[in-house]
Every structure is written in structure tokens, then in C-alpha cells.
Amino acid sequence: MLAALMVSFAVIFIAELGDKSQLMAMTFALRYRWWVVISAIAVATSLVHLLSVALGHVLGVALPTTLIAIIGGIAFIFFGLWTLRGDTLNDEEASRAKVATRSAFVAVTVAFILAELGDKTMLATITLATDHDAIGVWIGSTIGMVAADALAIVVGAVLGKHLPELTIRLGAAVLFFVFGVWLLLDALVPDSPAGLIGGAVTLAVGTGAAVWWSRQQTRQQQLAPAPRPQEPTRSASVGQ
User: Fold this and answer.
1) How big is the CA angle at 93 (ends 90 and 98), to the nearest 5 degrees?
2) Residue 72 CB neighbours (<10 A)
3) Is the pLDDT of residue 89 over 70?
4) Domain definitions of the chain by residue range
5) For 94, how many CA atoms within 13 A lie in the half-sphere containing its CB?
């Protein structure tokens, strides 16, 4: 149970970095008291992840262990690609964070339940529950998501600006790829250090690629020509 709790905490915390739920948390915190937002996020996450763990437990009983590990590895690689794509709030989700309701707690809870249904953090929790202790996954995934959203609220309030989105997305994606390769190699080559070695190599290569990509993006921004100031329109001379 403790191992499942720790693994789930780490995976869901990483999955939540740069996710739309963090954007929603920061937006809600600008309107409501921070402790109301955190409490509502905790309740919403507990409910959604309880459903996720139940689904994952049922699938875990029905599927063989090797197949579960292979599916899990593919899923984590998919989560990495999903994270690289980035995440933004659509108009409907942004409006939920702006429109006042009778109860801020109810508004935030409902908004986060709707936002998390089908989200990658829910899918990651289902994947974890197929091969880990259900209660540990539930507790760890809930704490991980609440901690990540609390971090977004605190950083947004203290710094007054957005987190470096590109760095967060690249780092989270690399860690998802590490988890995915590790699971796949452990399933395909059991009783060997292939999973650990593959995960370490993926971490090293992914980190190098992320640093290179980040520098390329920074260089392109620096070399981009600055927009030319518009010349004022000359008034027509009197008498012409």
C-alpha cells in the first residue's frame, strides 16, 4: 500500500503539472479564497479517483499481469505525448472559473469533476490501479493532484505570473516516457535490469533533448525580428 501510494503520488503530481486543472485552480484562486479552492479540489479529486481506482481494480483482476504492464507502458508513453501537446482552457471551462455562484465550494467542486472526467490524470489513475494496491493508489493520486494544484495556486499568487509552460511540459513528458519504457521493458524482459537501464537511458536522452529543444525555442525568440512601429499618418495639408 505504501509503495502504491508513493508511486501514485509521483505519477499524478507529474501528470498534473501544466494540466488544465492547474490553470483552473489558478483562475479560481483569483476569485475565491485559497482554502475554499483547495478543499473543493480535494473533494472533487477524491470522487473522480475513487471511480478511477474501481475501474482499474476491475480491469486488473480480469487481465493477465504481463498484458497489464504492456498496456500501462503504452499508456504512459501516450501520456507523455499528450503532455508535450500542452493543455489550455476552452471557453466553457474558463467561464466556470469566472461566473459567480451561490456557493464557491460547490462551483469549484463541480467544475473540477467535469474537467477531470476523461482527463489524463484519471486515465493514469486507472492504469496505476490495475497493478497496485487500490487504496494506496486512491490516496496517493488524490494527494498528488491536490499538491500540484496547490503549488500552482501558491506560485501564481506569489510570483504573479504563469509558470514556464515549455519547461514544465518537457520535464513532465520526459518522466512519463521514463515510466512507459520502464514498464514495457519490465514486462517484455522480466527478471532483468532491462527496465531500470532503459528508464535511465530514456531519462538521460530525454533530458538532453528537452534542454536542446528549450534552447532552440529561446534562440528563435531572440532572433525573431521585432515588430516595426507604425508610422503616424500624415494629415493632409490645408488647401491641397
Assistant:
1) 120
2) 25
3) no
4) 2-164
5) 5
